[in-house]
Design goal:
Layout: H1 5-18, H2 40-52, H3 58-67, H4 70-75, H5 84-93, H6 100-112, E1 125-135, E2 143-146, E3 155-165, E4 173-178, H7 185-199, E5 208-211, H8 218-226, E6 230-235, H9 240-250, E7 260-266, E8 270-279, E9 293-302, E10 308-318, H10 327-336, H11 339-350, H12 364-388, H13 392-395, H14 399-412, H15 415-419
Parallel strand pairs: 1-5, 5-6
Antiparallel strand pairs: 1-3, 2-3, 3-4, 6-10, 7-8, 8-9, 9-10
């Protein structure tokens, strides 16, 4: 069944309104002037359009440029079919740092139109988390060599730090920063946070930084405070003295001492009860002179008969005074930290198939460039899905439906479809 014209125009409207915000024309071209057949911004635009249309390889993007409606191809400055090898060559030659700029540009544009306002929380919160993708190649720069044992094939893991604005309904990825092969999440935290802060200097995008226990250290916590921000870090046995004291103060508190609780019904007849316990008795504990609040989040799962089937406690430390948030907000921000995993990473791995289909496997640098463009595509779609859409039903649209709608619109667009749209400027064609 053909896609209805109204939906097609709506999908085309997303492209026409948001593609100019990416500022792809400002990405520095690494190629020599001689022999260029395509402008760089057009090639990057082609890859981005392929991503939002659900393509799972550069070969599929090439096929899309052949199938694309002629009127849309003209509108986007794509004169003819683009070979997958042409796209691959330019992605492998690009400096991944250059592609952070378009990501920041889209976020800044969304901030200007007030699409990133905090939901429920009183200020912006960014959650940072590591992500790794395995490749059958390694360069010891972007991909860390992983030993699989003698006689096993080479595996390189490309690791990045994802920064997700979890205070926004859309949960956009506001930055992605590579973790060099010679270090890890803990060691790279300070460099990556400073780079993130520099990228958004001048706008009030976030005031609280959350990370799991993988980056929890007094050194990293102090860096957050020196940058004028507050932290919320997961706490585990990697900080044994701090963890033991937090358990001593909070582990034995009875259920009636919980500051706030929530109850959620999940798949099947299961109910999950989450409760938050707070203390400020550890303020300034040891070397942690900036520490103010310690939290325990208790999660209990019950079956239909009221029997507890799962139980977990998680601890967090924060430089934010307990009074700065209500108890319900403390519980919410601790739960929302996992928005970086449950929203961003999950979507990248399921809808976009990043881990299964990284597009470029033999060149880690090229793979990182694709990953940055993939996050740009994710942002364009999540902002449309969660902010532009007005009803709760539309905001729950499955990701695969969005990708399919865009693909259908791209291959079937007519002059009449595009005539309905307000014209937006795009970079020149090659």
């Amino acid at each position: 069944m053909a896609q209805e014209a109204r939906l097609t125009r709506r999908m085309l409207g997303v492209l026409m309104a948001r593609l100019p915000e990416t500022r792809l024309d400002q990405v520095k071209d690494p190629r020599s002037v001689r022999g260029r057949r395509w402008r760089l911004e057009v090639l990057l635009r082609v890859v981005l359009v392929g991503l939002v249309a659900g393509c799972k390889s550069l070969a599929q993007v090439e096929a899309l440029t052949a199938e694309m409606s002629l009127v849309l191809r003209k509108k986007l400055g794509i004169a003819r079919r683009v070979a997958d090898t042409t796209m691959r060559d330019v992605l492998c030659a690009l400096d991944p740092e250059e592609l952070r700029g378009p990501l920041h540009a889209v976020v800044r544009a969304a901030h200007r139109r007030k699409a990133l306002e905090p939901e429920v929380l009183p200020f912006g919160v960014v959650a940072m988390d590591g992500k790794g993708t395995a490749l059958p190649s390694c360069d010891d720069v972007y991909a860390q060599r992983q030993s699989q044992g003698e006689g096993k094939p080479l595996v390189g893991v490309v690791r990045t730090t994802t920064c997700t604005l979890i205070s926004s309904r859309a949960k956009p990825c506001i930055d992605t920063l590579p973790i060099p092969a010679a270090t890890n999440e803990m060691g790279r935290f300070g460099v990556n946070l400073r780079s993130l802060v520099d990228a958004y200097r001048g706008i009030d995008l976030f005031r609280l930084v959350s990370y799991d226990a993988g980056a929890c250290s007094e050194h990293n916590s102090r860096i957050v405070r020196e940058l004028g921000l507050h932290y919320l870090f997961g706490l585990k046995g990697t900080q044994p003295t701090l963890f033991a004291e937090a358990q001593r103060l909070l582990a034995s508190l009875p259920p009636q001492a919980a500051a706030a609780s929530t109850e959620d019904v999940i798949g099947g007849p299961l109910t999950v009860v989450r409760s938050v316990y707070l203390t400020e008795q550890m303020a300034g504990f040891g070397d942690w002179t900036h520490l103010r609040t310690v939290l325990r989040i208790e999660s209990e799962t019950f079956d239909a008969h009221g029997r507890r089937t799962a139980h977990e406690n998680r601890y967090f430390v924060s430089s934010l005074p307990a009074s700065r948030l209500t108890a319900a907000q403390w519980l919410l921000v601790a739960r929302h930290h996992w928005g970086v995993e449950n929203n961003c990473h999950h979507t990248l791995d399921t809808a976009f198939k990043e881990d299964d289909r990284p597009w470029i496997e033999s060149d880690p640098r090229g793979m990182v460039c694709v990953a940055l463009l993939r996050r740009l595509a994710y942002n364009l779609l999540t902002l449309f899905r969660s902010i532009t859409q007005r009803s709760d039903e539309r905001r729950a649209t499955p990701w695969l439906d969005l990708l399919r709608w865009l693909y259908n619109a791209i291959i079937s667009a007519t002059d009449a479809d595009l005539a309905e749209l307000r014209p937006r400027p795009l970079a020149r064609a090659p």
